[in-house]
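Hey L., structure's done. Input below.
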Amino acid sequence: MAPLPEFITNTPLHPSFDRDIRNLHLIYDYDAENPETKRPEKWRYEMWFFSDNRIVYAIHGGPMKGRINYQTCTYQCIRPGELWQCNWLEETGTIVSLVYDIKNQKITTLIAFSQGHWENAEAARGDKRNFTDFARWRKLAEIGKQTDRLMLSEQATILENFKGAGDLVPIAPDAVTL
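Output:
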């Protein structure tokens, strides 16, 4: 048995990946609610589908504002030219499943925040390239148990859609993610 976490998919990567997803950069806003005040606010995210097994992202609004990260991920084509799913595990123990709707320019996500990640949003900020931030994030995964999660289902509107890094910093193709 391979060591965990392991990323397995038995669905071959659809040939439209290069056209639809590879090197795609999206900036999008969730119409969300401030968890403390319960007032509406925008949560801005920036996602770069870096390669066939890595994403790079930054969070510019909401409780996780100030988080700069990259992850190992898996992709599944739901409908070529229309819908793609991207899934990953954070070093904090948070699980993310994101669906990119190309035609409607929407992002739909389920984020299963670990207790440590959600309840310690400020500790989850920083840049993974900074060893101190990365080590602190890993400790967040140790808080609570697997069922102690905040399950957040949200939908976002894509504001910008282009190819390339934009303001995000590239990573090595085999960058350590957990």
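The longest helix spans residues 131-140. Strands lie at 24-33, 40-51, 54-59, 67-79, 83-89, 95-101, 106-114, 126-127, 149-163.

-- N.
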